[in-house]
Structure formats: C-alpha cells, structure tokens
Design goal:
The complex is a heterotrimer of chains A (544), B (199) and C (303). With 544 residues, chain A is an all-alpha fold. Chain A has 16 helices and no strands. Chain A is globular, with a radius of gyration of 23 Å. Chain A starts with 25 loop residues before the first helix and ends in a 47-residue tail after the last helix. Chain B has a single domain, classed as Four Helix Bundle (Hemerythrin (Met), subunit A) (Up-down Bundle), CATH 1.20.120. Helices cover 82% and strands 0% of the residues of chain B. The longest helix of chain B has 36 residues. By secondary structure, chain C is of the alpha+beta class. Chain C folds into three domains: 79 residues, no CATH class; 107 residues, Immunoglobulin-like (Sandwich), CATH 2.60.40.420; 93 residues, Cytochrome Bc1 Complex, Chain D, domain 2 (Orthogonal Bundle), CATH 1.10.760.10. Chain C has six helices and twelve strands. The chains are: A mainly alpha (544), B mainly alpha (199), C alpha+beta (303). Chains A and C meet through helix 3, helix 9, helix 10, helix 11 and helix 12 of A and helix 1, helix 2, strand 7 and strand 9 of C. The site of dinuclear copper ion has 9 residues of chain C, from loops.
Amino acid sequence: MNPAGHPDAADDRGFLAPPGGRRGLGSWVFSTDHKRIGLLYLGCILALFLAGALLGLAMRLKLMTPGNELLAAQTYNAVFTLHGVIMIFLVLIPSIPASFGNFLLPLHIGANDVAFPRLNLLSWWLYLAGALVAFVSIFSGSGAPDTGWTFYVPFSQRTTTNVSVAVLAVFILGFSSILTGLNFVTTIHQLRAPGLTWRRLSLFVWSLYATAWIQVLATPILGITALLIFSERVLNLGLFDASRGGDPLLYQHLFWIYSHPAVYIMILPAMGVVSDIIPVFARKRIFGYKMIAFSSLAIASVGSLVWAHHMFTSGMSDLAVLVFSFLTFIVAVPSAIKVFNWLSTLYKGSISLEPPLLYTLGFIWMFSVGGLSGLAQGAAGANIHVHDTYFVVAHFHYVIFGGTGLGLFAALHFWLPKMFGRMYNRRRALAAFWVILAGMNLLYFPMFILGLMGMPRRYYDYLPQFATGQFMSTVGSWILALGLLLMFHNLYAGLRRGPLAGPNPWGAATLEWTLPSPPPRENFAQEPVVHKGPYDFPRQGGHA
Amino acid sequence: MPEPRRDQAGAKLGMWLFLYSEMVLFGGLFLLYAAYLHRYQPEFHRAAQGLDALLGGINTVVLITSSLFMALSLTALQTGQPGRCLGMLALTVLLGASFLVNKALEWGEKFQHGIYPGSPGVLALPPGEGTFYSLYFALTGLHGLHVLVGVVLLGVVMLMLWRGRLRQDHPALLENAGLYWHLVDLIWLFLFPLFYLIT
Amino acid sequence: MTPQAVNAVASVDRAFLFIFGVSAAMLVLITLATIYFVIRYSRQRHPVPADFDHNLLAEIIWTVIPTLLVLAMFYYGWQSFSALRGMPEGAMEVKVLARQWSWSFTYPNGRQSPELYVPVGQPVRLAITSTDVIHGFYVPAFRVKIDAVPGMTTQAWLRADQPGDYDIYCSVYCGLEHARMLSRVRAVSPQEFERWLVQAPDQDGEAIARREGCLACHSTDGSILVGPSFKGLFGHQTTVLDQGRPVQVMVDAEFVRQVLADPSRRPTQGFPPVMPAYPHITPEQTAALVEYLKALGQEEHQH
Ligand code: HEA
Ligand code: HEA
Ligand code: CUA
Ligand SMILES: [Cu+2]
C-alpha cells in the first residue's frame, strides 16, 4: 500500500506531473506529448464505449420480450444506428492504436515522441470534433440518423433524419485516422533507436505498422463515400439513384472497400497486444516471430481484396461471389497461423496466470469462436442463409467485443501500471474476467442460434419463435454489465490508490519497462541502444 | 519543450503517405467513373460534347505551367535565391487562381443552361448523360477545392519565406507544398481527358 | 442431376454441417491445449521455460492443414450456392415487388397477392425488384435470400416439398417498419393452387388496400404510422404542398386518384414524402378504394 494513502504521494509522477507549472485541462488538451495524447484518447474511447454499451443495454431491454413497447420503432432504429456508429467509428477504429499505440509506440522503439507531434495533437482534436459533430447529429435536424452504421443508399438518401451531419462526422473521423496512420508509418521508419532493427521490433509495433498502412490506404475511400452521401442528400447528385441511371450497388462496393479492411484496423492491434503479452507470462520468446509479423502484413494486404463478401445476396454476379468467397477463405489462414503460434508460445513455457494473460487467453478463445463463425459466412451458400441475420450480429460481437474488446482490456491490465505507476487488485481482476466471459457468451451465443433459425437483424420486434433466445441474450447483457462494472471499478481504484507498481512489475523485456512508472516526460534521457530482441527474458528468475 | 526534431526525410515520407491517401480519395471517384463509363459509353460520349474542350485545354496548360514555376521556385531556394523563389511562387499562385477563375466561368456557363447538380435540366437528360454531369461536378468540384487549398498553402509558404522562416537548409515545407501542387496538377491531367476528350 | 432435382436446402445444410464440424473440432483442440498448457507448464510445475522459438515442420503443418480445410469449406459453400442459383427450366415465374413495407406477388395470369402461394413439389422462379429502397426477400425454410434492388431485377427459386406456411422476412434494413415487412409462403397441393390461381381476387376496397400495402403506412384507427390515418380522411380538408407552397384541398375521389398516380406531386404537409406511386391500379380499383376510404371517413373525425 501507498504509505500516505494519498494519490499525490507517489515519489515520481513522471509525465503526469504538471509540466512547468502549467496545470489543469490546458496542459493536457494542448500537449503534444504522445503519452498525454494517448491518455486523452484512452479516456474518450472508454467514455464513448460506455455510452455505446448503454445503448446496447437499451436494445437488449427492448428485445427482451416480443411485442413490448419500451422503445418506439423509430427510436429503436436510431439506437442501433448510434450504437453501431459510436462503437465502430469512435471506439473500435481508434481504440488500441490511438490510445496504447500513441502511448507505447515511441517507448517501444526508443524514441522521444512520434515523428509529427503537432500533427498527432491535431488528430486528437479532429477526433474530438468528429465526436462532437456526431453528437450534434443526434440532437439537431429532424431526428437522430436511422440508417444503420452502413448508410446504405437509397434509404440513407431518402430518410428525413439527420444523416448528412452524421456522415460529416464520419468524414472528420476518417481524416483523423489517416493522420494517425501516416504519423505511425513515418515514426516506425524514421525514429527507431540504434540497434533496433526491423527484426527486433516488438510484435505490437509490427501490428501497428500493418494497421497504419491500412489506415492510410483504405480510409480515404471512406472519406469519399461519406462525401458522396453528403452530396447526394444536399446537392441531389443522383449518382446512386436508380431512377436516374445510378447504381445503388456501387455504393455498397465503395463502402465495403473501406469497411472490410477496417475490421482489420480493429483486430490487428489487439493481436499485437496478445503477441506481446503471452511471451511475458510464459517467460519464453514468442514462437514464430517472423510468421506473426508477416501474417499481419498478409492480413493487411490480402484483406483489402475480400470486401464483397458482405454483398453475396446483393444481386452482384455469381462470378464475383465465387472470387470473393475464395479470397475470404484465403485471408482466414494467416489468422489461424497466429492462433497456433500463440499456443505454441505457451507450450513448455513457465506460465503465471496473471490478469493480463487471462484476458489474453479470453481473447484467443472468443476470437476463435468469432473467426470460425466468419468461415460459415464466407462460404457462399451458407452465407445466403445467415446474411443479415443475428448470426452475423453474433459473429461480429465475438470478434470485436470478444476480440478487440478483450484485447483492449488485456492491454489495460498490462500497461495501466506503467501509465499510472500503481497496481490494481489481482484477485478482483481475475474474478471480473470470469463474470465478463460468462456474460458475453450468454449474451452472444444465443444469437448464433437465432440467426440460424432465421431471425433478421435490425428488427425492433420479432415473432414468438425467437423469444427464448432473445430473452437469454438479454439476461447475458446484465451479467456482462456487472462484470464490466467490477473490472472498471477495480482498475480505477487501483490507479487511484493501489500499491506502487515499480518500473517492471511483470518482468517484461521491451523498452518501456526500463523506464520508471509512470515514464518521465522526456521518455529516454539518453537515446537507448538496443542489443537484444523484445522477448529475450533473463533465463531465470525475474519477479512476479 | 525540446526543439522539435527537424527531420527532413521524415517530413517527406509523411507527405508522400498523405499524397497516397489523396490519390485513393480521388481513386474512389475514378472507380465510380470507370463503372459508369462501362455501362453508359455512348451517353458519356454524347454528354462530353457539351463541355468546352478549349476551356479545359487552356486550364491544362495553365496548371502545367504553374507546376513548372513551382519547380523553379524550389531550385531558386536551393541555390540560395529567396527573392527569385518568392517571385516564382507568386507566379504559381497567380496561375492557380486563374485556373479557378476559368473553372468558375465554365461552371457558371453550365449553370446558366440549367445544368447543375439536381437541377431540372440535369434531371431531364437521359440517365447516362445525367450521370456524366453528376460525376463531372463531383470530380471537378473536389479537384477545384484542392486547387483552392493549394493556393492558400502556397500563400502561407510565401509568408514564411518573406519572414525568413523558410531557409535553404530546411526546405521541407516548400518541397512538400510543391509535391502537393504537383499532385493536384497530376489529378487534373487525368480529369481532362476523362471529361473533355472522350467525345 | 437436372437442376430441378437438386435439393438446395440439403446442400446448404451440408455445407453448414461440414463447417461446424471442423470448427467445433478446432475449438475443442484449442481449448484443451490452452487449459493443458496453463496447468502443465505453470510456473510452480515448470519454473524453467524451454528455449525454442520456431519449428519449421510445425509451421508448415499448421499452414497447410487449415488451407486444405478452408478450401474444402469453400468447395461445399460454392456447391450449395450453385444449387441455390441454378434456375430450373420451365418453372412458373412469379414477379415479386417489394416496397416500404409490404410484398406483392404477381402470377403469370395477372393474379396479384400479398402472400406467395406455391404448388407443392414444383419449382417456382421469382423475379424480384423494388420500387423504393433496397429490401431483402428471405425465406429461412428454403434458405433463400436475395436483395430487392430498385432499378434491377434479381432472381431466386424455391420448391416446397411439404404443404404448409413458411415465414417471409425482409432482410435488408429499409426504414421504420422493416421489422413488420413480413409475409408467408403458402404451399398448397397443385390442385388447390390451380383453383386459387384462377379465383378472381377480392375487389373490395379493404382487400385492395391490404394487397397493395396501404395499411403498412396508413392506419384505420386514427393513429399515425407513416402517412396520415385513413380514419376520417375522406371528405375532409387536408394541406398539401404544391411546389413547396401549402394549399388546402378536399380529399375526394379525384384527389385520391391523383395521389395514387403520383404522390410526389403534391405531398401532404407534415409527412415525409415517401409514399410510392401506384400507376398500375385500375380505375375500378381506385373506385373501390374510394368507397373504402369513404366508409372510414364517415366515422368520427378526430382532432
Ligand atoms: C474485428 C473485426 C472482424 C474480424 C477480425 C472479422 C473476421 C472475419 N470475418 Fe467478419 N465481420 C465483422 C468484423 C470482423 N470480422 C463485422 C463488423 C461484420 C458485419 C458488418 C455489418 O454488416 O454490419 C462482419 C461480417 C462478415 C461477413 C459478412 C456477413 C454477411 O453480412 O453476410 C463475412 C462473410 O464472409 C465475414 C467473414 C469473416 C472472416 C472469414 C473473418 C476471418 O478473418 C476470421 C479468421 C479467424 C479464424 C479462422 C479463427 C482463428 C483460427 C483458428 C481457430 C484456427 C483454425 C482455423 C481454420 C481451420 C481455418 N465477416
Ligand atoms: C465495439 C463494438 C460493439 C460493442 C462493444 C457492442 C456491445 C453490445 N452490443 Fe452491439 N453492435 C455493434 C458493435 C458493438 N456492440 C455494431 C457495429 C452493431 C451493428 C449496428 C447496425 O446494425 O448498424 C451492433 C448491433 C447490436 C445489436 C443488433 C441490433 C439489431 O440488429 O437490431 C444488438 C442487439 O442486441 C447489440 C447489442 C449489444 C450489447 C447488449 C452489447 C453489450 O456488450 C453492452 C455491454 C455493456 C453494458 C451492458 C454496459 C456496461 C457498463 C455499465 C453498466 C457502466 C455504467 C455506466 C457508467 C459508469 C457511465 N448490438
Ligand atoms: Cu423491407 Cu426491410
Ligand atoms: Cu468483411
């Protein structure tokens, strides 16, 4: 325990200490320090995550029983749209890269900041602006957008709700994401410390690198798509209007050319976190370093060629279905390789089941369930049956909440002690995990069955045969909420009042652990020189 | 605060990535163009006759010339002639502005004939021809916006040069502004044949 | 096998079963391996980790085997997709029209119906389109799903092997009442089907309103759905926008005819202009609709 019991009593608050007498909000929102920016993102992302999750909770209440009138039809439609938009554009896409990526990238490569610190701050400001504009779209105009996060034309063109402002928010957020991406690519190329060769990069940095490329190369398509919807609505361009010779399917192609790669923006950084955590707690070098690094790049590049697997029922040609189904299966292989590499790292290791590792194993399991269900969707004939049903809803909650979400939670448990210098309660962290895991599975597993039974998604009401599954799912959402409350409370209490964590509580070998916790403002007093790989642990001992 | 690193190579890499993403931005619209051209070849050819290839041609020459001055201004800075550099930049800006004026005239003429996005005139056109004009306004509009941004950016660069904040030993800002300008020019070189010459 | 003999449902289910089988096996393997490693190699039991970080043979094995497995999945998936898409020759063609928020099925003899009647044992081809936004025609029992896209006709086919009713859903989100855009496939014996097909459909106003989907948007009890309620509508003043200017008009037979022909010309003030046009409605049907509205209009006008 911290002797004085007062948060300020820690000896060294590092970068958290008010810089040069400047205190308060200004020292944060105008700071170009990558660590402060990372924390700003983290705070916003967690707050928005809670907001989005509460909307999810509301949907579950409405769907608990058929025919109930808790939310009107229009309200329900707006709620799932906002839930999707918030979770995808404001939470998942920035999630790990913008928060932990910003905080850790310079530390992992032995640099003092990212390549363009001011641009980095601008990215955060744009992110905030995007969030505000999204917020405005809810409360202005004639009602919150009700199109679903996919904004399909012609509906998004015709609806009288406030879609124009919402797509503007998406455009701004896309811009923020591009700038972060180009900042990271440049940082990784230019600012590695002496001796830090490409083969000595941590796998987390490798995954950020692959992600950053997708951000730079795919996000502009989202930008133009958002601009086009905006012009369709405001200028009446008619580019997708069938009665004027337009083709609504072209919109879907443009949308998914970005949005499929975007799912890898969401998952790759979490995979990087997992690849960095497992070796630490198995005390063993990662198995198949090259394969993991390479498969990140493979996923990033081949993943940009499979977008139309979201469109098998859209009426595009059967030949296109053939090609895209095939490519979808090909991109699944690198993910399989990663799973097997992670397991082999555990094999014959010396494993201590600390909270970060437990959450990581949760990631692997949930991601496997979600990924394997993705295979059922990738198979052309099977997709026809489950497309736009709850099967898909189950699939993506498993991969994004079970995957990226648990990856983020693992990262929180692993790096918060580094960020704030204090340790949370271990037993409570472990207990919260099991509640979360149980809640998630009760919440989402019934959705697979509902989907196979034919329950379409985006329905504010349903037929009686779906009642049992929907009810179970709602109960699951309460258990999950309880687990999340436990976890967040424990983390928060830990960083306020927990015992000091020391520089390297887990005995990890990457560069950030050579610094005090929290790290000093300048990161490295002298430029570090690197002589070993990221997973070369002392052969024996170490603490924890 | 430590002195921000003056990493010229890094700045250039970042700029190239940005230009890449700009190309992808336009790429989305080019994909649409390709898809619709495939579907409506005769209509596109017919509609393109409504555009004035002479005006478009003049604008092409204007932009290419401006790119030349842009390049000259960089050489001037590198050879230590800030005054000459400033002059070249001024010429670039002037040509960029005249491109915009020319474009505005061209659009204005179309507007007068009742051809603007969503206008009854466009709605009355056969499907493919209306699509052609929608694409024309979307692409040249987005491009015009980029020219405008470029002109403003060059204005800022001139100001920095004037104040002596841009020097021979770290020309990254000028180089990057130049790269951006060349990109905008390059995109026009695609737009010109796609809209004016496919008749 | 002729296309008619292909059982698409069985083929799709086979693909599912294969993928589930492989996935379940993989998942069990992963779960057991994780649990075993965590216990067997816990720090107490195994304080000194082994020192290795690659093994070419293992990596080749777990690249090649999953690749083969996914290729098999791809094959089954494609096979079942072909079964769903291989349009049988000589099948009866039914035109399917989707609109916010109802379905309309038109038979070769012109018979129209809001439900899809099919003869048991015979394949039926569907030619699907939409008048407004994208919808999705989905019958889970037959594993059939295809989008209804404005300006485009998509194809599907199905064959009911057992008499009975099967749910039809709209699978693509299409606005407010997406969840209520339901209908049924009614599979009946061929004799019964023939009898049904030549029956003149009810031509009273209420049947037409139901068939044409008016009641998805207009209530008959005064509540507001999407458009104004039919209750108390006929014979009263309403405010429409004529080229943007509000104008008072009387809802009479002529006005109803105009609205059905082109609702966008003078949309009612205070409502979204989303009503589809009904150019195919005959003058007799319009007259029947007017009678129907009249009957509803005489009831107490609520304010
Ligand atoms: C983090 C995000 C994420 C990730 C990583 C994935 C990963 C995958 N997704 Fe998913 N997907 C989404 C997010 C994601 N998806 C979202 C949000 C949607 C819905 C969008 C919407 O419509 O709203 C969607 C929808 C979606 C569809 C469209 C469904 C439809 O609407 O009809 C398809 C179809 O092919 C698909 C396939 C896949 C596949 C094959 C993978 C693969 O990459 C998975 C690979 C992983 C594994 C295979 C598991 C691990 C490996 C093993 C356990 C070893 C054994 C493996 C083998 C034998 C191969 N996804
Ligand atoms: C990060 C991504 C993410 C996450 C985490 C979630 C989380 C949840 N989602 Fe999901 N969801 C999406 C992304 C996500 N979702 C997307 C992209 C869609 C598609 C939208 C579309 O169709 O367009 C979707 C759609 C979707 C649907 C389908 C709607 C439909 O098709 O009709 C449903 C239905 O149940 C649902 C439910 C839930 C639930 C119950 C949670 C739960 O996990 C929530 C659990 C959390 C809680 C229960 C709150 C816990 C916190 C507290 C209690 C703290 C208290 C508060 C404070 C202290 C401030 N979501
Ligand atoms: Cu029609 Cu959904
Ligand atoms: Cu996808």
